[in-house]
Write a structure and sequence with these properties.
- This protein is an alpha/beta fold.
- It is 42% helix and 14% strand.
- It has 11 helices and 8 strands.
- The chain has an 8-stranded parallel barrel, surrounded by 5 helices.
- Bound molecules: phosphoenolpyruvate (PEP).
- Phosphoenolpyruvate (PEP) binds next to strand 8.
Length: 250
């Protein structure tokens, strides 16, 4: 039985004050979340505040990106060791915004997965098709290629050191959620694809859904047999909405 994970991706949102209010709200309600793991991924500059406010609570945290380099003259970059320094458990790699706005390709994302894993961080590997790719009926090809880049670099068993997040690009931040059936179909395909290489890895690996998951649609999505949690953008910025999703996860 795979544990469910609900992770909030705050993207480039928040202030010291708003983050304190959000975390106070989450901490107040977290006792009602029975079995799911709950994580938040703030912007880098707030990691110290988040660490201070969440240490000793059941809520864990992570970052939204990392450098492939260990240290040195890489202005503006943040190394895996620095994320460890601030107690991060997770780091998101290959979010569609990084892929589309900052030119991250499959090879770079796979390298980020490798660097995170080597540092003992759990990479949350984001994959998913664009609207154009869905309309061309190449969703399966796209997600297989994106996962394949990591498998080719690290081997299939590496996947259990991380988490996969299936995030159809057309559903991210648009309010257009995949139906539970649409999401389940792709999650099942991803798991089958991994099972072709290693059935026990496929059985163990957590596959989250992301893309306009909210308090109203979470329970139907999370009821699908291959959906092991959610990566939540907009709805993770309001404590009550985020907690409703976490409770729906169990
Ligand atoms: C995301 O950015 O990972 C995401 C799923 O965003 P939203 O929930 O806002 O669609």
């Amino acid at each position: 039985m795979r544990q469910k994970l609900v992770a909030g991706n705050w993207k480039m949102n928040g202030s010291k004050a708003s983050i304190k209010e959000l975390l106070d709200g989450i901490k107040k309600g977290i006792g009602d979340v029975v079995s799911a793991e709950v994580a938040v991924c703030p912007p880098f500059v707030y990691l110290a505040d988040v660490e201070a406010q969440l240490t000793g609570t059941p809520v864990v945290w992570g970052a939204q990106n990392l450098s492939t380099e260990e240290k040195g003259a890489f202005t503006g970059e943040v190394a895996a060791s620095m994320l460890n320094d601030f107690g991060c458990k997770y780091v998101i790699v290959g979010h569609s915004e990084r892929r589309s706005l900052y030119g991250e390709d499959d090879a770079l994302v796979a390298t980020k997965f490798r660097v995170a894993r080597a540092a003992g961080l759990k990479p949350i590997l984001c994959i998913g098709e664009s609207l154009d790719e869905r309309e061309k009926s190449i969703t399966n090809e796209v997600v297989a290629r994106q996962i394949g880049a990591v498998i080719d670099l690290e081997g299939v068993s590496a996947l259990t050191d991380g988490v996969i997040a299936y995030e159809p690009v057309w559903a991210i931040g648009t309010g257009k959620t995949a139906t539970p059936e649409q999401a389940q179909e792709v999650h099942q395909f991803i798991r089958q694809r991994i099972a072709e290489k290693d059935a026990s890895v496929a059985e163990k690996v957590q596959i989250l859904y992301g893309g306009s998951m909210n308090a109203a649609n979470a329970s139907d999505l999370l009821a699908q047999s291959d959906i092991d949690g959610g990566l939540i953008g907009g709805a993770s910025l309001k404590a009550e909405d985020f907690l409703t999703i976490c409770r729906a996860a169990g």
